[in-house]
Amino acid sequence: MIALFIYVKYKPLYRVTLNGKVIGYVESKGKMQEKIEEFANNLDGNVTSIKIEAMPEYKFELVSNVKESETNEAEILAAVKENSEIKCRVYAIKLDGNVKASVNSKEEADQLIETIKSETTEGVVLNFEVEEQEQIKQDAEANVSSIEVAKLSINQDVEVKVEEYKKEQEAAELRRKQEAARKAQQVAVSSRAGTPISSASAGRFLRPVVGGTISSPFGQRRSGFHKGIDIAVPNGTPIYAADNGVVKFSGWNSTGFGNLVIIDHGDGFLTYYAHCSSLYVSAGQSVTKGQNICAVGLTGNTSGYHVHFEVRYNGTSVNPMNYM
Predict the structure, then answer these.
(1) Which one of 82, 111, 144 terminates a domain?
(2) DSSP letter, residue 48
(3) Under 8 Å CB-to-CB from 217, ≥6 apart: which residues?
């Protein structure tokens, strides 16, 4: 009668604790351990090792409250898994030495790299590597990306490299054009070697003002050698650039020129425009032939309204009349 009472009132079970905490009850300690060992030895897929950090402890008991102590092998196994370190084999895709994505197999990694290369602008260098790695599994899924997600992640960096490549190509093309222009300029200068400057450049320069008379020509005069020509015109008359070039100087000159503009036309030629009342350009500015750059005035050493127009070749003043 006592045995029957115990059998009806109590249920023989194993109380299971993990890290000192009760996590459930099982009828068979042996069967529970078999399930745990099966989990620990299941190295399917990319799993390389499973280390159970804490094993459960069992204590046989006669449990009176059967409903509250029902067996729960699945929950106990889940708790053991949560306290386990699972390592997986993954294949990291590196770009320029930095990991950009990880996939399940080397075949997937190689195929993804080939696809990205085939879709990238020709000439862009993509330094890819595939490295086998062992990583700790963080959740139910391996620490890998789907092919689509991995491709999106890698392409973000590839797009940056494509933009850099395009900028480099544009810069190289600009340098090529500049070098071609420089060589063409050298050829043009060389083709004039041995030819009198006056005949090679005759008609090169535009008359700096419209109308007017030459009040003082180029050459020797009583006050000294006149290095340019003076064209007498009314105050404020527009003065035009004699040719394309870059403004070398625009401002006040204290040696007698007054307000002065100097334009560098390349090939050794400079033109001077002196005694101006107003200046419309500044140093470093590019100007075109016929552009209004200043106005006639009475600044500096002068006794009447005129523009002093001077041409210098390789630092030497030459007669402007030979080039207009």
Answers:
(1) 82
(2) E
(3) 226, 229, 321
